[in-house]
From TrEMBL:
Short name of any one Pfam family annotated for the protein: Amidohydro_2
Compositionally biased region (Polar residues): 10-20
Region of interest (Disordered), ranges: 1-35
Family per record: Belongs to the metallo-dependent hydrolases superfamily.
InterPro entries: ACMSD (IPR032465), Amidohydro-rel (IPR006680), Metal_Hydrolase (IPR032466)
UniProt keywords, alphabetically: Decarboxylase, Lyase
Protein name in UniProt: Amidohydrolase-related domain-containing protein
Residues covered by the Amidohydrolase-related domain: 151-410
Length: 413
């Protein structure tokens, strides 16, 4: 179905979608500070909150005795804690207005000098509905959520854009396709889609994902690939399972590994070769891909099975993982430190600094002390850019905002 609707030629990868757009202002003329663009910033719109409130398995919202705020319990690693919640430290995180209120988002942006945010629904998107026997039952919530994001963007022209959500269901890609097709027409602020690593239930190397990738490629809608599942609890051991280490292992290690595995599977299955104009933005600086790309290359080169397959003419991955990183993959700069930042830039090639985009992961990782207004996650990610690239340098301004404006075709602030 998708192949029948070829569109006019698209801009080459990495080129601005609108080459005639005026040069991007990288500094606010009034404050002389760089225009920060946050491409990794989440919200849960009202309809999604209602969905979570109606549930009694994870993901859900639940109140616990002695705790004034309801809690958002999301992660698979929290399942054991939910069945036996600790009275002093129940599972999940407090559902503050930072997750739901547009005013709170704008206040956060103003506080941290963020001119533009590209909002996205946070994990686990609509994946928990994919057990429904009726694939089309995901369409209505997906549409509604996208409409809610579009309405938010309309309230703050020039400051907000969003990555839409897709109704991905194991039984039926056709459910997602009409929405992809209409995304640009319906939602003028939509700049791509956020998806998890599960795809239609079998990961992103699943041949059934090809229709979805093809449409996203044709419509020049980048994928923002974000983790949710992490690694199985057993990997982290009993003490982690009992909650002794909080969320540290699942978020710091499980999330990035999940992204790395997902994108490596896409690469090994030849998806990037099949869809050479598909753009994929990886969350958290690409997980661990910048560090492990050379090892992946080496394992491919030394793999007897792949070697034989290639000799017999049964398929070859056309480009190295480095070439894919330099042409189709973009990384966010949510890495919290200079070492990770430099690795992400180097892994992205000679012009790697053009492929990194600043993010905050707001509203996750809030300040924990009462009255603390500055978000440490923003400070750490900004400092990583300023220290790694030089405060006020052209490169720092690119990563902090200019790249996102070009790559995602945002209006200058
Ligand atoms: O703290 C967390 O659980 C999370 C999460 O679920 N998703 C995310 O993007 N960051 C942190």
């Amino acid at each position: 179905m998708p192949s029948s609707k070829k569109k006019p030629q698209q801009p080459a990868q990495g080129e601005p979608s609108n080459p005639t757009a005026p040069a991007v202002e990288t500094t606010d003329p009034q404050t002389n500070k760089p225009n920060i663009v946050d491409i990794h910033t989440h919200m849960y719109p009202v309809s999604y909150i209602k969905l979570l409130e109606s549930r009694n398995t994870i993901p859900l919202i639940r109140s616990f005795p002695g705790h004034p705020e309801p809690r958002l319990v999301l992660l698979p690693s929290e399942v054991p804690l939910l069945s036996n919640p600790s009275p002093s430290h129940p599972p999940g995180r407090p559902l503050t207005e930072a997750y739901t209120s547009l005013d709170a988002k704008i206040a956060f942006m103003d506080k941290h000098n963020i001119s533009i945010s590209v909002l996205s629904l946070a994990n686990p998107w609509l994946e928990f509905l994919s057990t429904s026997p009726d694939p089309s039952s995901l369409l209505e919530p997906a549409l509604r959520i996208n409409v809610e994001f579009e309405v938010m963007c309309n309230q703050h022209p020039g400051r907000l854009y969003f990555f839409g959500v897709l109704p991905l269901h194991p039984e039926n890609t056709l459910c997602a396709l009409p929405l992809v097709l209409s995304m640009k027409m319906k939602f003028k602020h939509c700049r791509g889609v956020i998806i998890g690593t599960n795809g239609l239930g079998k990961g992103l190397d699943d041949p059934d994902m090809e229709d979805v990738f093809e449409m996203l490629e044709e419509d020049d809608l980048p994928i923002f690939l974000h983790p949710h599942y992490g690694l199985p609890n057993q990997v982290f051991g009993e003490r982690a399972e009992k909650g002794e280490y909080g969320h540290v292992l699942s978020l710091a290690l499980g999330f990035p590994m999940e992204t790395t595995v997902a994108v490596s599977r896409m690469y090994l299955s030849g998806m990037f070769d099949k869809f050479p104009k598909l753009k994929v933005i990886l969350a958290h600086g690409g997980g661990t891909l910048p560090f492990l790309a050379a090892r992946i290359e080496s394992c491919i080169r030394h793999d007897g099975y792949l070697h034989k397959k290639e000799k017999e003419g049964r398929g070859k991955i056309k480009r190295s993982i480095w070439e894919v990183l330099n042409s189709q993959v973009y990384l966010d700069a949510v890495v919290y430190g200079e070492v990770g930042l430099k690795a992400a830039i180097q892994a992205s090639g000679e012009r790697g600094v053009e492929r990194l985009m600043f993010g905050t992961d707001h509203p996750f990782f809030p300040p924990l002390e009462e009255g603390e207004e500055e978000w440490g996650s923003v400070v750490m990610n900004t400092e990583a850019v300023n220290k790694g690239l030089g405060e006020g340098s052209k490169e720092a301004r690119m990563v902090l905002g200019e790249n996102a404006i070009k790559i995602l075709n945002l209006e200058k602030p």
